[in-house]
Amino acid sequence: MANDSKTWRCGKCELSFDRPRIMGVLNVTPDSVSDGGEHFDQDAAIEYGLAMLDAGADIIDVGGESTRPGFTPVNPDEEARRVLPVVRALAKEGAIVSIDTRHVAVAKAAVRCGASIVNDVTGFTDPKMVEFVKTSTCGVIVVHAGEVAAPARTHATVQLDTSAAAFVAEKAREAAVEAAREAEKPARRRRGKLLGEPKVEAKLPGGVVQPSLPLGESEPAPESESETPAAEQAAPAAAAPETVPAATEAAPEPSDHLAAMMRRSARREEAYVPTSQLRRFTLPDSAPIMRRVMGFLSDQARTLIHAGVSRDRICIDPGPGFGKTANEDIVIQRETAKMASLGYPLMCAVSRKRFVGAVSGVTQAAARDAATFGVCLGAIQAGANIVRVHDVAGFAQFLNGYWAVAEPQPRRAFVAVGSNLGHRCDNIRAARNMIAEIPLTCVSNCSRIYESEPAYETRQDTFANAIIEIKTELAPLVLLDELMKVEAKLGRDRSKKAKANGPRTIDLDLLWMDGETHGGKKLRLPHPLIGERDFVLVPLEDLMHDPARFFRYNGVEVKEPEDRVGHIVGELGRM
Prior knowledge:
Number of strands: 20
Structural class: alpha/beta
Distance between the termini: 40 Å
Radius of gyration: 33 Å
Strand content: 15-25%
Low-confidence stretches: 154-158, 188-254
Largest sheet: 8 strands, parallel
């Protein structure tokens, strides 16, 4: 399960994995196989990235180069032109941004623009990329993008059949060969030996004869067609070693290593099981595949650590679809628990991949979201910590529903309550009672009610303010929606005609939630204005020791009391 003690440090952010984290895919490319270039326009990409944050994404993965099979490599200058404005805009809104690139120049520029994570599809095999990330504080994702099939055999596969029918057939073949040789004996001699004379079989201790096995070694070519034994001419074609068709051999490979590997992978997928071979099992043996995948991920992680990258910055990804057939991808996904045991945060990046279409029977990539959710659920149950998906809104609903039932997990949160219209204290108490009725939520503590000066919009009456401490099992965005419903029931006007910081019957702000960091237009966690609000920090002193220190530790800038807004001027009683 993703419910473990791993944490992932990404620049100024730290992600905990008490619940799975969602990474939204944002392809700023014209040729993406999954979204058809819908977000190639920068403004459209920024808008879509913010929408994914508001739908439940914890991370936005921005990429400017498609790595689908047969992709066209993009030079770093063009890739940077595509992604940097998007990275900058999303980071400005508090998003945790991942840059999906294999070019060190693009990674450097993106981190300078606010990216917190470098997602390298080539697994940091470029020493320059290693040199860069060791001097930064960003999180890193090590991806396995290699081929996991065993090297091609140079000889035909030896198949032993011990059935009676096979024994009889072999004896008949030997008799035919012997008869052909006897017929050729009078023909002519060379160097004192009869042509076609039987070879002497090697004898093992005890007089046992060791038969010659057809290992595919090339025999000397006969001088003429008539010198080839008739029985060998009649041997079935399946016994000969398989050869690659000339058209396949002549096909030019792209000069780019990753593009060449993806093209070879596509060819292997098209002809995975030759018709002349039979397989005993539905899937290939997992041991050699996992040795390659886990060995690479472990080796690259150790390389980064030895270079100076701290272990808690490293995440691993087995790279589904990169150089792998559908069968190999399924084998790897079934071994998720083994990869999770390596101790690094584990990514499940299967969204809309070819093997997902293979197991679900869905041809169109954009229609594979439901099947993607099923594969992701299996990975989460086996220990995956992060899921990389295209349909963030759909998966967030799916995950919230599953997690509410499967993983009881109350978490602490603080809600700020304010009112300066009507019976202010009664409004605050009514809000407290309604918050206690929110599903999977309870009120665990409350501060006293304080009176404060108005902040930001000073021409209005003073406010009554308090802090409510709650425990909840809801996701942050779901909890926020419930708080907005409480506001609406108590008469809060949030229409465009109402002043943002003007008079209101009730105001509810989700300030902080255990283990949550979030960005976007709809919700920011921790609340970005905590550190300057006296009417928040003073009531919090009733609930925790030294809230200023607590929030500074969580990366929030806290101002000195004299520099804050909305100063407390009195006390109005208990909740």
